Please model this.
Amino acid sequence: FVATGSWLYLITGSALGTGAALAAYQLFDHVRRRVAAWSNPWADIENKGYQITQSLFAIGTGGWFGMGLCQGMPGKIPVVEKDFIFSAISEEMGAIFAICVLLICLGCFIQFMMIAARMQAVFYKLIAFGLGVEYIVQVFLTVGGVTKFIPSTGVTLPFVSYGGSSILGTFLLFGIIQGLYIIREDEEEERIERKRERELRNGTKRRTTKKKKTTKEPGFEEVPKQRVR
Model:
């Protein structure tokens, strides 16, 4: 949609994504469990809703300033080091620290979008935009899942959650964006250099034109004007 501006791609993609989500709900039992835990975790707090309720307890216990490093009980949350690391941060470091983590992620996304907007080649522009959207969607899925905003998807928080493949994938993402930034700087330097060359050529042409206009013909002497009384 971003590349073409055609609403057909956006509508078709949204419809296919919705259909895939409904099909997954019907086919996979763990998807139904996560949706049930999201809709009402308190109904089965000892089984299906245990993970999300412990996450909410941890976030509420931490308050604004947290209980202190290694002073909380994040181990009560299953798979806390991967899927629910944001809950552990909120419990021990507090909501203010957790909000700062989100602001860092948001700042990275804004930088990605700025790089994409300044790229001259459409191919590089779309790469930067796609990777930026992928990054912020991953952050949204992680934080939204632990706060019961959306069903838990088991996605890690970039550069925060434990996981070798997650860290490697995020490093590759940031490496590509860094490469695009270097390309953008080179394009900017080339544009400035071309602008200077045009200005120099235009300045040379103007000086040459002025010299031609002020050049006198050989043997021609200007007669001084007499004052009229």
Summary: Residues 164-214 form the longest helix (51 residues). The two ends are 82 Å apart (CA to CA). The chain has a mean pLDDT of 84. DSSP finds seven helices and no strands in the chain.
